[in-house]
Amino acid sequence: MTERIEGHGGELALAALRAHGVREMFTLSGGHVFPLYDAAYKTDFPIYDVRHEQSAVFAAEAVAKLQRRPGLAVLTAGPGVTNGISGMTSAFFNASPVLVLGGRAPAFRWGSGSLQEMDHLPLVAPVTKHAETVFSTDDIPRAVGAALHAALTPHRGPAFLDFPLETVFSVADVELPSVTGVDPIAPDPEEVGRAALLIAGAQRPVIIAGSDVYAGDAVAALREAAEALQVPVFTNGMGRGSLPPEHPLAFAKARRAALSGADVVVVVGTPLDFRLSFGDFGDAKVVHIVDAPSQRATHVQPAVAPAGDLRLILSALADHSGDRADHTDWIADLRVAEDAAKARDAAEMAAETDPIRPARIYGELRRVLAPDAITIGDGGDFVSYAGRYLEPAQPGTWLDPGPYGCLGTGMGYAMGARVSHPDRQICVLMGDGAAGFSLMDVESLVRQKLPVVIVVGNNGIWGLEKHPMRAMYGYDVAADLQPELRYDTVVSALGGAGETVAKAADLGPALQRAFDSGVPYLVNVLTDPTDAYPRSSNLA
């Protein structure tokens, strides 16, 4: 049975949003979107406000990622929308179903020079799946439904609507459209069959599972496929934790040995981008499994690339009934490499050096983080260590900026994570460079009683730039920050708490105090500026 509703544009929009499972709003106050606030206030719909619009979009993205449902950001016209574009772009690269609602100068005065008069669509269209200006009040529910349907359709991503002033302030009496679900994309059975034959017949296969495995609710199907075919699994992004670290097919440290020795590499739910050598694995054949045809790689030619609902594809792989090669020796060889790497890492994470090496921070964090803790990476060099030393125990517990690599996600992601999981540990790993992008939004967390722990790796430099520039040119410029800056006192001034740690032996107690505090708490760790995470150049 359909529902009729009479109200202003904000009330019509909120009714449609509720029907599609949206449960909260992230925003920075602006007059162009007052009716949306009015509708939320009158119906006790939660509003979380921030100090910079990018944080509102990042918070909405965290909700979308963690809860696999739409996240909502509401931005005022002009600079409100443009300040949110980096967040929209990150959501686009991360396939996060975020809906951004923007204010817009009045249409009846368009071209006369109204406050913040700007056509947003040409800017946001390239980084959204759906972008539309809604000119009629009674069209708002239809537009909200269409935008959310687009955002949730694989390959998922952000959508954008803006409302001219008179559209959102005016009143209409409309029928709410019924909510239609998103139909799964059925894969080509022949392509899936070819992939199954290739994987089952391989002598040294490897699976790399990425964020879309979690986003597509395909974690269980991934485990079934890996176990049925006995294939070692590596993960990245939100795919991390899909197999618990103790699982006999779960690997994290032996990636170099695996990819250099594999004859078939199966990449599931993540692009063949710079993080995966652009899909070049030497002589190995590549099976690229994606959630939509649009995600098939065009710069390389995989041996086969099934596209469609990842649960359907992975379940079909698990059900493969043909001959299967024995991978026992291959798995055992990788386990030897994995164990050796873990032993090396354990020594590094226990290092008693002063200044503190970043690895030691992660050694201490492993002792205090609960299995269901949400860990957020916002940084370059410092967060690179997190990918090496932290092993999420459960899927859906790791957030990082993703392939767009946008710094400044930290406080927005923290807000969205705390809203999503009120009873879990939330830990933000932040470089001192990244702290400059969003640390002011600690005030938003304090004011709205959203406690998180922030660990800053403070080496006083832009580590990803300083060391490579010195290697290339023999000098560096624009790569230094204030050494030993007291980011903890910034957080204290904003109403939180914190401390600076300069000795490795003091790390553990400081982290425990942070998690026990019940407020936004920053542990400012002075790290060795000469310690750079080893990596090959990604400048290509």
TrEMBL record:
Residue span, Thiamine pyrophosphate enzyme N-terminal TPP-binding domain: 9-121
Gene Ontology MF term list: acetolactate synthase activity
Enzyme class, UniProt record, top EC level: transferase
Co-factor requirement: thiamine diphosphate
Ranges where the Thiamine pyrophosphate enzyme central domain occurs: 194-317
Keyword Magnesium: no
Pfam families reported for this sequence: TPP_enzyme_C, TPP_enzyme_M, TPP_enzyme_N
Domain annotation Thiamine pyrophosphate enzyme TPP-binding: ranges: 378-525
Keywords on record: Thiamine pyrophosphate, Transferase
Enzyme Commission number, as recorded: 2.2.1.6
UniProt similarity note: Belongs to the TPP enzyme family.
Name used for this protein in its record: Acetolactate synthase
Organism annotation: Micromonospora parva
